[in-house]
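Deviations from the work plan: none for this task. Representative record:
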Amino acid sequence: MCQSVPMSNNARGAICVLGTGLIGGSLLRAAVASGYEAFGFNRSQSGVDAAAADGFDVSSDLVAVLRRAATTDALIVIAVPMPAVDAMLTKIAELAPDCDITDVVSIKGPILEAVRAHGLSARFVGGHPMAGTSQSGWAATDSELFDGAVWAVGVDPDTNAASWERVVRLAIDCGSVVVPVVAEEHDQAVARISHLPHVLAEVLASSGATGGALALGLAAGSFRDGTRVAGTAPDLVRAICEPNATALADVLDETIDALIAARTTLRENGDLGAVVETGYAGRTAFENRVQREITDVTPGKPGWLDDLRRAGQAGGVIRSLDN
Amino acid sequence: MCQSVPMSNNARGAICVLGTGLIGGSLLRAAVASGYEAFGFNRSQSGVDAAAADGFDVSSDLVAVLRRAATTDALIVIAVPMPAVDAMLTKIAELAPDCDITDVVSIKGPILEAVRAHGLSARFVGGHPMAGTSQSGWAATDSELFDGAVWAVGVDPDTNAASWERVVRLAIDCGSVVVPVVAEEHDQAVARISHLPHVLAEVLASSGATGGALALGLAAGSFRDGTRVAGTAPDLVRAICEPNATALADVLDETIDALIAARTTLRENGDLGAVVETGYAGRTAFENRVQREITDVTPGKPGWLDDLRRAGQAGGVIRSLDN
């Protein structure tokens, strides 16, 4: 079966966003700004009203929204927190089982499992735009949130080429570059660069507060930056980090070992040990990373998923599907 | 003995800055911008040349600079990294033993010990402006670096009132507010809000790099902010953190315990435990902290040092000596 389906830039199709909080709402704005027909669902009426007041087509009637998705052959974007994903999939399976589906949730393995459990994997392609702020809700949405961001898009085995191409075009149209990645490797990577920063910010903020008014009064840039994401609502932090428990616990093991080594040599010899140099090297590697462009992407070509997976592992990004 | 010495705003006196890197050089710029006669010493000729090219009076001849400090009754500001402090004190004791002295080094206990060992404590008042960037050297200096910053100033027992007033006026003239604090409490506080952020940034940057090009390619705002200070030169990180080994090791003990608790409950129950809420509360307390103004400051009045110490512990700041 050849899955390669040419798709012109103009035939964008409709977008149906389920959940119009910070990420979903910003995606709705960005899609509309790029010329998509885009509409959405939000659970809370206050969120619906806020979106409507800004001129966006959002409803709290999930059944109606999904029927419209089915009718318009929309790409459905699941943009609710992980704990609410299963209920969404149940309704999609019932009302819009033939639609393309993606998501913007911060972990990919558990999403993929849930999608498979609901029999929806044939047209599903996972996604994760690496963008956000510590704010949440419609009021924080921004059509430019994804401008210049990295957007992880799944290249898991058996991915449908046409669905994949549609998701990649949406990410690019929102201003992002695409990193192709399989679910497990995504989750291990984000444990390091997204979930560990959350946990470290929490322990740092706790430590500062333990020092009382004097410590918080002396705190400046390094504390401010190091604790920024601890300003995220606790429920949202849990929804982001806890579904990735296994990978995050493994990374915490490493981190605890590194801190114990630093603490021990600091107490015994008055020096912090190797972590100062490895940390500096890591930050330098981050600052100097290069987004090498992946070209000649041909969805559906034999071996395309493996090729893209390897290119993503090496730091490659897709900027366009048209070269 | 009454130590209260009235000093008009206009009688600023001279400032002698030893070490014109990021902090010392910025202080030289800020002092000159505020109308002080200010001059400095720098060890490297390239640093001297860079300062001279910008019109500043900096020399690599330490003996000549300290003789000038003695002649002009300058306030000497020690702005070299901790490992170089002892050599500076030796020269000050020899060439300018009657000058007022302060410093801008990131820890206060070891400085105070060294000052006492050199017999220079009678006119010494420790200082620590809570400002900086991950850059270093004259090229990074900025006359506005201290604008709106917090500047810790020592209120240790037996502090000379006139010397103290001179140091506080300098900090205020540079645009900062002053937090009065004794050396030990300063060092415990900065272990939490300055040195721990450095160590956590290093371990986070290391963990990201361990994830390779894929992890660094997916890294976004939370990783960028959480690792910012890991971009500081390793020698400077060591010079900042390692002299505070005992307090930092104690804080690392707490931090390791908190991470072990989070890791354990994450592995066993899939949840991060209490750290999410305590971290959020800590960050919220930081964002909502209030700098209550300490007024009616009368250096030399009976009990003034204890009064100021308590006011600083409660989050108070000095904005002016003239009310």
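The beta strands of chain A are 14-18, 37-41, 58-59, 75-78, 100-103, 127-129, 150-154, 177-181, 292-293, 316-317.
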